[in-house]
Amino acid sequence: MEHLSRFTAEFFKALRNLLPIVVVVVVFQAFVFRSMPQDPLALVAGLLIVAVGIALFLQGLDLSIFPVGKNLSNQFVRRGALKLLLPFGFAIGFAASVAEPAVLAIAEQAQHVSGGRIDSVGLRFVIAASVGLVMVAGILRVLRGWAVHRILIGGYALVLGLTYVAPPEIVGLSYDSGGVTTNIVSVPLIAAIGLGLANSIRGRSLLADGFGLVALCVMVPMIGVQLYGIWVYNFGGGAAVLPVGESGEDPTDWVAGMIFGLAGMIREVLPIVGVVLFFQFVALRRRLAHPLRVGVGFVLVLVGLYAFVVGLRLGLFPLGTLMAEQLIRQANPVLILLFAFLIGFAVTMAEPALVAIGEQAQDAAPGRISASALRIIVALGVALGIAFGAFRILIGGPFHYFIMVAYAVAIVLVFCTPKYIVALAFDLGGVTTSEVTVPLVTALGIGLAATVEGRDVLIDGFGLIAFASIFPVMAVMVYAMVMEGFPRLRKEVP
Question: Who has greater pLDDT, 259 or 338?
């Protein structure tokens, strides 16, 4: 009965979070395009399925991924098993990224639009290895008590330095690659590992030390992909070009699409589950606490994620892509920017990973952080970021100048904002670009670059995801400064 009540509460909360998407769709269809969706029932059904998926997903997280991640971290620390903890971090990071659908999609897009110069498989492994290595560094940071803001400042200084020398064809792709490494399943697990470590080590703060792993998982792939691009464009050859639309399945076969979609979800979750079970049973040689509950939780995560994606594909994705195409055909910059802003806000408010991390942050700092306020601030940041990225495509100009200024502003804010919020702010930037936003944002960016005269799809089409990742970071830090009494700077929370 308790679980049913929790599911009902999460379902209605998800419906409330989806309301902004409905408002954006209705307003644009009724007042801009003066038409209604051809199949409004599909949109309604899709949104209801999305709400069910979010409710199941969040309930599954509480039963499986959050407790298992925290318990594993506690066991590693209590046993002093540093030699096991670091390989565990690498394996989790690699497994979570190599099978990530958003990474796969962006890698295949990059291979196609680069004429085969960029190899999709090689790019995926560069990204996955980068995430694995940064998980090791992030775990060491928590163990040693290193300040995350210093690592982020040094890391992004390196990112910006590489941006000067990297080929322009790779810059937007590298920043987008950092944004898509953290998915709807891996973000809660990575956050749980960090929180579990901080909770197990005396003198660590849940807020200042427990968060930050997701932020590092966003930053380091940018470095790896830029180094990969420098190598490829100076010494590398070409890969086979994937023909557009040849995926091995009939896109008109709805049943086949659902089967392939479920197989993709299983492929995404199984590597992570396999790593967790291997280290639990083989490395630590301990049984799972409450294995039935954990098993049910993993099933709920899988079913919830599958329902979530099915609902999006049934209603939101086709309509969102159609609306983006309609706006581009109208060639009205004001409407394009307004749509970019509103759809960015709407889809972020419905992002399940953001809901989960916001609640974890609220639990870590009760009375200081509000999960609902964080979601609104992050959604506004994403909205501004996507609108700014669309504005850059419309007016032209080198991408790397715009993104370097944005990250430079973020680095300056790190010096000014309360230090306890830095890790959380950069983590929140990493959870805003997953299964909800990436397809819509990518379609809008590539569509604009292909339509606006003088734009290059490879150089200009990528990059919206990068702006959607960094702007919420800045928004959260500004929000923290205002709440703490800007311009007075507080000392770091112990």
Answer: 338
What average pLDDT does the segment 271-275 reach?
Answer: 79
pLDDT in tens, 280-326: 787 777 777 778 888 888 888 888 877 877 777 776 666 666 776 77
97 compared with 379, residue with greater pLDDT: 379
298 within some domain: yes
The answer as to whether 281 is a domain residue is yes
- pLDDT reading at 367 higher than 80: no
**What pLDDT score does 379 carry?**
92
Look at residue 479 and tell me if it is in a domain. Answer: yes
Helices of type H across 61-207:
66-78, 82-98, 101-113, 120-144, 148-165, 168-180, 186-200
- Residue 363 CA to residue 365 CA, distance in Å, equals 6
493/420 Cα distance (integer angstroms): 6
| 46, pLDDT greater than 50 | yes
- Return the pLDDT at 249: 40
Asked if the structure places residue 419 within a domain, the reply is: yes
442 lies in which domain range?
A: 2-483
Whether cis (ω within 30° of 0) applies to the bond prior to 101 is no
CA distance 151 to 1: 46
- The pTM of this model reads 0.73
Is residue 99 over pLDDT 70?
no
Tell me the pLDDT tens digit for each residue of 172-186.
778 777 766 766 666
Taking the CA atoms of residue 202, residue 95, residue 371 and residue 494 in that order, the dihedral angle to the nearest 10 degrees is 20
As a residue count, the chain comes to 494
Number of domains in the chain: 1
Q: How many CB atoms lie within 10 A of CB 451?
A: 13
